């Protein structure tokens, strides 16, 4: 991979920001000294400083030195952050990446300048192990900058480019979706305990089975129903279990949960 030549500022170094920074270094996209991590209390960044990252509690100074700026704070904190960095924004030099849920590109430009290039990215917490599903979207960034941001996030997982009006939906399906699938795995492991396995055995079996199911779809490029058909036989135990789950609303409850999360994600940010 060709190394990025400029400087990167990640404002709000929580789980997503730190995982992205580590992924960029691990993949040789950038070196640690090219990346500035900010947090209000930088004592929490001591270990990262020892790894060579630049750490700071001055968001404006970090932005002033950066070519790519990642806004990695909660939606409720974004307006205050944008006010802090406004004097340091250079629309001719910088690209801004926002991972804040429910905040549009135009919302950000209204705060820091109409000509600023903004790209939204929605990773999930699997970014910590380089397995994120990240969706990216923009309404004004150049194809070159979108390609660069895509390359960045490909260092920590898979990337899909989507229309911006689908970003809230992506939040529900991919970011919130991690929790939904984890809850399904937890439920499966609890079922395993009910039928006789120790908790640690049941969890390991459920996790590996879920991983195998996901890898089947990814590697075989098949549809879930194709793989389900392979394991269901007439009057068999699999179809009996599936039908019992469906009678109790398994699929419909998951669909409803995703729809509700999408609605909630769109209401997290206050423009004023």
TrEMBL record:
Task: State which pathway it belongs to.
Answer: Amino-acid biosynthesis; L-proline biosynthesis; L-proline from L-glutamate 5-semialdehyde: step 1/1
The UniProt entry, under Pfam families, shows: F420_oxidored (PF03807), P5CR_dimer (PF14748)
Q: Which residues form the Pyrroline-5-carboxylate reductase dimerisation domain?
A: 164-266
Source species: Pedobacter nyackensis
What PANTHER family does its record include?
PYRROLINE-5-CARBOXYLATE REDUCTASE (PTHR11645), PYRROLINE-5-CARBOXYLATE REDUCTASE 3 (PTHR11645:SF0)
What is the protein name for this chain?
Pyrroline-5-carboxylate reductase
Please list the GO terms describing molecular function: pyrroline-5-carboxylate reductase activity
Pyrroline-5-carboxylate reductase catalytic N-terminal domain: which residues? 7-102
Top enzyme category: oxidoreductase
Query: Where does it live in the cell?
Result: Cytoplasm
